[in-house]
Queue: 2 jobs
Job 1
Amino acid sequence: MSHYIFLLVGAVLVNNVVLVKILGLCPFMGVSKKLETAYGMGAATTFVLTLATGSSYIIDHFLLMPFGLEYLRTLSFIVTIAAIVQLTEMVIAKTSPTLQQTLGIYLPLITTNCAVLGVPLLNVANGYDFVESLLYGAGSAVGFSGVLILFAGIRERIEGADVPTHFRGTAIALVTAGLMALAFMGFAGLDKYQ
Amino acid sequence: MLSQLFKFHGGVKPASHKDLSNQAPIVTAPLPSRLIVPLHQSIGGTPRPVVAVGDRVLKGQLIGEADGWLSAAIHAPTSGTVVEIAMHTRPHPSGLSSQCVVIEPDGRDEWIAHGPADYAAMTPADICSYLQRYGIVGLGGAGFPTHGKLTANPKVAMAELIINAAECEPYITCDDRLMRERAEEIVRGTAIFRDMLKPQKVIIGVEDNKPEAIAALCAAVTALAEPFTVVPVPALYPAGGAKQLIRVLTGKEVPGAMRSTADMGVQVFNVGTAYAAWRAIGHGEPLISRVVTLTGNVRQAHNVEALIGTPMDELLRLASPNPDTDGIIMGGPMMGFLVPDETAPIVKTSNCLIAHSARLFPPKAPEMPCIRCGACARACPHELQPFELYWHSRAKDFGKTQQYHIFDCIECGCCSFVCPSRIPLVQYFRFAKSEIWAREREKKASEEAKQRFEFKQFREEREKADKAEKLAKAAAAQAAKKAAEAAAAAGGTVAAEAPAAAGDDPAAAAKKAAIAAAMARAKAQREAVQAKNTDELTPQQAHEMAAIEARRAAAGVSEAPAASTDSRTE
Amino acid sequence: MDILLAIAIMALGALVLGAALGFSSIKFKVEGDPLVEKIDAILPQTQCGQCGYPGCKPYAEAIAKGEADINLCPPGGMEGVQRLADLLGREVKALEAEEKPKQVARIDENTCIGCTLCIQACPVDAIVGAAKQLHTILTQQCTGCELCLPPCPVECIHMEVVPETLDNWKWKYPVVSIHPASPVASPEKEAA
Amino acid sequence: MFAPAPFLLKDASVSQVMTQVCLALIPGIAVYAWLVGPAILVQLAIASFTALLAEAAILRLRDKPLALFLSDGSAVVTAWLIALTFPPLAPWWLVATGTLFAIVVAKHLYGGLGQNPFNPAMVAFAVCIVAFPALMSQWPSIGLKLPLLDQLNIIFGLAPRVDALSGATPLDAMKTALKLGEGQVNVAHLLENQDIYGNFAGRGWEWVTGAYLLGGLWLWQRKLITWHAPLAFLAAMVLISGGLWLYRPESFASPLFHLLSGGAMLGAFFIITDPVSGCTTPRGKLIFGFGAGLLAYIVRVFGGYPDGVAFAVLLMNLSAPLIDRLTQPRIFGMKEGRP
């Protein structure tokens, strides 16, 4: 049990997918200007990422491995993720047009969110079983969403700050992300303690 | 007796400086050289002038007729000649002008025939229109027509009638002196309000730094055997804000979004208003003068009974201002404003003139960035987060300011008072508020424009259809004619079908036109209904506007000593 | 053989996913385009055509389709561009034309010949008058679109800046501020 | 030119606030200097000098009034907090680098005073401990009080950094003990025998933290800080450390030890009460303080770095805007207010 907890804590905090693994920076920078959008993007990514890790595992173990087609891993993962994203987009368009609009281009772009591909591949590399994969996926997704939402909160405040002209916008956002990563380094070693 | 007093959050205790002017009795100001009476002195419609240039008017004669329900009449403050009806600078932070009637006094101060009203025979509706015709408005600062507040909300039983005698702003003592000298008339005026609103309780709230006034009021209440309670409230700025006073006396909190305190079963009137109402009913005198405190950088601070329309500089001279006076603040030092033009006249809501000097009010230190220390939030009587409001107002992020309830701000100035960074917070909030209002206006205008545009397009379509129909009819007629000719030539049944076939088209076109016309009617109806809706809203909006105007009236822009910039430029 | 198997498996996967997507595209079909309405709500509805489209709605449609840029509306000003950019997640651009203060048209009563041409041009019916009669402009309704200027044969219409009155007076931004204001209003705000 | 109301102002200013914060630090500094030697004063001077220099340079670059902002005292407060959190015998360039980073990146890139989302002093500490872990862990043993000249030589790199300096702090010792595992070293036993490890009322760091507590209480009494954040911070520390201590006293140190060691008191009263980077609503402050206390304990006990206060504060800093938004207090006349 404690093994799973540490895995989860590790995925959320210690090896935070954005701030430590530096994956998924595109939506992290792009959809963090407003809290509302960040909530939406976080939810969408959590959904996609968890689903993607699960289905990738199934595809990997029941379709690719039995036939020795591991070399098709990246390709088939991408296709699966793309389909899931498409599905999510349709559901969101139906249920919440405003969310779809605020997420804008970033919703279809979850497809190319490297975190979404990266986490299933890391799962394979780490040799996680199905439950572990799902946990790691969900943990990474929660870590991503959490950091995204916190970041959006900070950016909304920085929006009103008197930032030097040349640092306005993405520049100061990147500096902030760097300082956030610095703060997250404080978690280093937590997952090792058992 | 009322046993329990409540507290409101925050508040500040600036030095009161009231003893400068509260020692001397009220004196009647001499007639000024001329009187500039603005027509628009209260919230609501601008009264229509009913005199012409050259007319001779008597003291108390109607010169501006109330325009609409939410408006109050304007009267000649003295006898004389109307010399001008023109734009003059208003006592307003903008320094803009509005329509004024200028009267040159003839020195005789001759009253128009007047006498007490037959109060016993008057119905509440009569009293309302009487007060409106006699120009009675709230004298506390907002200038809301009094009859508007006396029309009680039929749905909510009136629990408390509060007479606001807190007078919490520093320097101002006009209500204090009024209570000391004319307590009986105040109590009689209060009785009128009581008769109108039929509240369960009548409370007169006075800040406890005015013991003489409290004593005078108590004596008057006992003498007249009225069941009113005079309650001393702790002196804490802004205890005299209507909502704060309600909170202190009754424990009720009136939300900022609520248009009228009557919805909570409370109504508040200023002491001066009660006095003015009694002068109107008991003596037949319209509101043509008021008590004004002259104080600040002057040698003889005192209160005067001044005619509405007296130019401020002329009035302030009565208190012999010191030579280093460099401006006049109308209202108190917390919410007043430096008048942009010192020849602007006294209006019904001018309670105090403070001679401004750099010695008395040192120029502000340069504004520093906000350090979010939260002193403002601790001082805010409305429990807002002024630093957040400031942050977003400064960045012109008005949506966020509304999320942080900017319209609940009463602009009392407590936040600016305590701010260690000396940020003119209230100024930022006023800026944000007026930007939001402007935006609303623009939005309304653009919606209207859109409707009109769509209607025009629709009309053009219809006209085109009409034209097409006419053409079709003409063509059909022509075809029929030809067919008839052909029939005449050939005879037979074939010809009979032709006009019918030709007639098909015009029929369809006519049908189309009919549909279009019906749609137009429906649309017009819809629009009519909408228009009606907005008509109905108007009094409520007017209420809102009232609140807005009140804050505006209490606000200040002006020229200031340039010293505050000096230290910024290294 | 291996390659055939691989192709078969990938094809199978594609088939399954395709079927799922096809099914959900029917199940979750969305009607209409609420975006146009939202854009239209931001536009000032002057119907002036300065954007090159016949009215605000067509311009809104063009923006929604991605055919038009968001900086073509001078009456909306920089603020309109900003709000469009926020709505659409596009980059803020400087206005194509210069921003003008709000104006209304005014007819010179001495020169008007009552030709009704301006009445036809006005998109919001803000000009009243009849043939050979003096025309006048309903200032309240005028959007300042300037569409009535070109048709007038005697050039009797001119634009006037709306004066500041007590009704439209605004509190100014506090000028004692030490730091330059608002990064929000500046065009160099990032795109993302 | 505007001269908006109110025309009366209370006598308060930013520099008054900052001066009082500095004053409140003085008892702590005095005890520090008495225990460790005058090196700390040198470090304070280095940090202040660097901070003011950096501040002046940036203000110059940004065309802001130099005198006004230099005299507000905020840079000095940051500098002092940096000097007090760094090891007293750290090389001068380490302190200078940290200060420079704090003032330039953490403060002025965001627009300067009042606009930084992260506490500059804690950013400096975190940057330096990540970049120079060894140097940042060399704490002198308290008993070893070198003369001023030797201390100066060490700070300015003129003398070799003797091994004797790098005595482990109490926290280090405890953590090592914990890492070694059960049965190997008994934490309670370890701490008992070494009064320099902060055994209560011995001659150790607890005197410094106690002096900080004193300064903090004074700040609270002056109404410059409210009780919410410090109390929540200390409560969180007591709760988690107390719980674990009762659960396994041989592996975990007592709450008293945790309260009196490392940056706990400095953090509770001087760092998490920074209104700029912290929470401002009452409930927000409670959450902020509690979160910081919890994280500080977790990082200092289970994490990889000697003390957790800096990381805990930074982590809470980055959550502060969100917490503030979610904990907006109700406003006058409203049942519950939340933007």
Note: The longest strand of chain B covers residues 80-89.
Job 2
Amino acid sequence: MSIPKLITEVVRTLFKKPVTRHYPFEKPEIAEGFRGRPVLNIDECVGCGLCARDCPTGAITMVFYSKTKRRAPSFDYSKCIFCYQCIDTCPWEAIKPSKEFELSTPDKETLKLKIPEEEVKPIRRRPPKKKPWFR
Amino acid sequence: MKNKLLNWSRMRSLWLLHLYAGSGCNGCDIELLAALTPRYDVERFGIKLVGSPRHADVLAVTGGVTKAMAERLRRIYEQMPEPKFVIAIGTCAMSAGIFSGSYNVVGGVDKVIPVDVYVPGCPPRPEAIIQGFAILMEKIRKGEYDE
Amino acid sequence: MSEEELLKILGEWGKVEQKEPKDYRVYMDKEKVPDLVKCLIEKVGDIRTAAVTGMQRNGKFIVYYHLWIHPLDVMVSLVVESENDHFPSITPIIPGSHFHENEAFDLLGLKFEGHPYLKKKLILPEESPEDYYPLRKEE
Amino acid sequence: MSLLIPIGPQHPALPEPERFIFKVDGEVIVDVDVKIGFCHRGVEKLMTKKTYVQNIYLSERICGICNVAHTTCYVQLVEKALDLEVPERAQFIRVILNELARIHSHLLIIGITGEEIGFETIFMYMWRDREIVMRMIEDITGNRVISALNTIGGVRRDISEEQKERIKKGISILRERFKKYQEVFTEDSTVRRRLCERGIISKSDAISYGAVGPVIRGSGVKYDVRICYPYQAYDRIPFDMVIYEEGDSLARVLVRIGELFTSADIIEYALDHLPKGDIRVPAPRKVPENDVISLVEAPRGELFYHLISNGTDRPYRLKVKTPTFSNIYPIARAMIGETIPEIPAILVSMDPCFSCMDRLKFIDIRKGKVWIWSDRDIRRHYKRR
């Protein structure tokens, strides 16, 4: 590049807004459909176990609740790769997307999410909301 | 008082050593690199990339640990001067993620060396990485570490 | 040279099957592979090795040499089957096959005869045992 | 007298490990020995243990930078084996995403090329502009790097009208920037001096050594999977192959810059001609016995998948051949006869992606963009001889 061009480039850059985003002090720009933490809505869940079957990393395991005599998925976010295959698979739409991405923690155990016994209700039988993509 | 001053100065100048620990795609690495380039610019917090473990305060590990790597990772960790911190970036570094179960993979970084902060995400956004550093800095400010 | 003429040449060496447009499989004897490749280079032109797939099936070893023939822009896969793990190498004819064959040797233990620098531990870590072939099926 | 110089496993150009052993005579390299495989993760074995649905996400993580090419190749392979017709709209969306990923990957590597030749400003500029592409990818897929958009039978998300407008706006900004970069790489004398006539690969060598992608096109061979073996919607989109005859490092960089423009054209054309309709069809979980290959033009070159299925829901054998695996040999040959300081620039002109190549990673104590002259390694090598 020639010198006059360089000088114009430098001068123009001086008056531009900085490109740096001051993240913790500024709100981050997150796209509408960002794939954050998948969240389970236990009231919708029927405990079929399809999500656990399709999860590529084994982040979802089915846990048996003896009080209500049913199974419910438990999420381990330390294994989750945020691929949303579980949301894609769930015919009852019980797993919901979220935009939550600030999950950093000093303790890995806090990322293991098991639904507590008292929140688990017996299964309400009803037809699935959508047809499965994989037969 | 002296401790407080020491912690404060330590917190404001974390020197970073970026390492691959074996298995993983390079997604986390390019996101960590993106955190260092103009848009996110972690140098605002005094975080700087260095080339040698002997100069580093923080070891940023991406990817799960493979069998061949475990010993080398431990050796690098031992070469770092005290106090030292480890930050595991990405799901692979936490639990080997999708590569767990492979014949060549040991598992997450915490199977080999102690980890201070975990950053989940596959790959984590640069913002999530910055938040991980913020947690680490908070930890140092409070003096919650061994000398 | 047209595609029909290429098929004619290939037909002399083994059974030809068309999978897709510009994608052919040739089922043939393993001993003839280097001769066929030499013949193709002479008659058609430069060849690039796209990949070498090795696999084990029903106790037999199968190797696919995927070759891309430059002047015709056609992908030809030579399929050879063998009871033992010895196969002819095409590296002396096409130098670019070096890594592809070496990878198959490292992971599956296929011995490519005539390969000038076949070496173990090209891909596997140096600490792994000598006769360890991760892609072999346990039977 | 010749001296052995081991470089790596922390290799000189990118922060990814590879080991080159150079035999030098004074300053000139006379022989190169490569030890690859520091990134071997055993993906091919792992693929046979997981189901076809799970393997989409595994193939995506073979390489983070070319993840779109990997999933496109994988789902295309399974669709071929299933004999499944994908909706038109899904094919166009795949093309758009593939080209966005190509822009992001090319910007990344051109930036690193700039850094390797000592032009750090261009590196920072490139990475600043890369954020625009990352933003667009995040907009349509939901993640900055790993897209997870492709699935067997179509794509998982649609492109809305607003997103279309945003992509078009971003592309027009980027096109202006591309022009500036083209100017830098064609006119700047420093760049020319470091890249011109370095690491020459002749046309016939490029074919017989097995080069792919920008490396083979930089040597004047007309081979681009998008044109030679059209996949998805590429046969309905007009565009030209970028070819340079010189075969040196600069030609390879200029091929990439030229492809930035064609990618921008392809995206605009595909957005204008985006057909209406479904984006996805249901797919069976089990794949009948079949034997198929699938080719995709990844940013780095031809990506090759070969599937042998046996009627179950898991592959029997899945072979992955990545572009860097093909390119490492021609580049190693091209270094012979060059001097030591040119090594990083030539290596980077190939766009090495070792994560792609070996599927296993490895590190050493020595990290960063320094290159290594370890006495211990030299001594060890002398002992062995």
Note: DSSP finds 15 helices and eight strands in chain D.
